[in-house]
Write a structure and sequence with these properties.
165 residues; alpha+beta; five-stranded antiparallel sheet; 45% helix; globular
């Protein structure tokens, strides 16, 4: 990657999008999202079909947060993957570096009856791309806001709405 942090970050994000697309194909998923720990969708691949990607991303992010919080209590430092199976679809959650998670959606009739590898696809290329972006962001100075700032903003918004009521 070049010495220009902006260009390097752009190249790293393109690599992430490409690796997510390959992960979706490898797992034979229809749709995939890469979620930040803040719940923001940072990359998408495949076709969401009739699924609302914003709603799906929000719900998946909440699910990832809940599973991540429960993992230490269940005997591990973090979850390795989670496969949620229903009658018409499956969702695979894969933890990624830097607090991110990949969420893959599979749709089919009889999704509870085999057909999906329990081990999951090789996510190493996506993990490597995420680590490369994290290095670029560290060199360039992380321009994202922190969790404390987000919590303070949420608190302030809640306070304003309480005052208006």
């Amino acid at each position: 990657m070049s010495g220009d942090p902006g260009r390097s970050a752009g190249e790293a994000r393109a690599r992430i999008r490409s690796a997510l697309g390959e992960l979706v194909k490898a797992d034979e998923a229809e749709f995939g999202l890469l979620l930040e720990d803040s719940g923001i969708v940072s990359a998408a691949a495949g076709s969401p079909g009739k699924t609302d990607p914003v709603a799906f991303g929000s719900l998946a992010s909440a699910y990832v947060a809940a599973v991540s919080d429960l993992a230490p209590a269940l005997g591990g430092g973090r979850f390795s993957q989670l496969l949620q199976t229903g009658p018409r679809s499956r969702i695979r959650l894969l933890p990624m570096p830097a607090g991110r998670a990949a969420v893959l959606l599979h749709r089919s009739r009889g999704a509870t009856e085999g057909g999906l590898d329990e081990e999951g696809p090789d996510a190493a290329p996506l993990e490597a791309a995420i680590r490369a972006l994290a290095k670029v962001e560290t060199r360039a100075g992380d321009r994202r806001v922190g969790r404390e700032w987000i919590r303070a903003a949420e608190h302030e918004i809640d306070r304003i709405f309480r005052e208006k009521s």
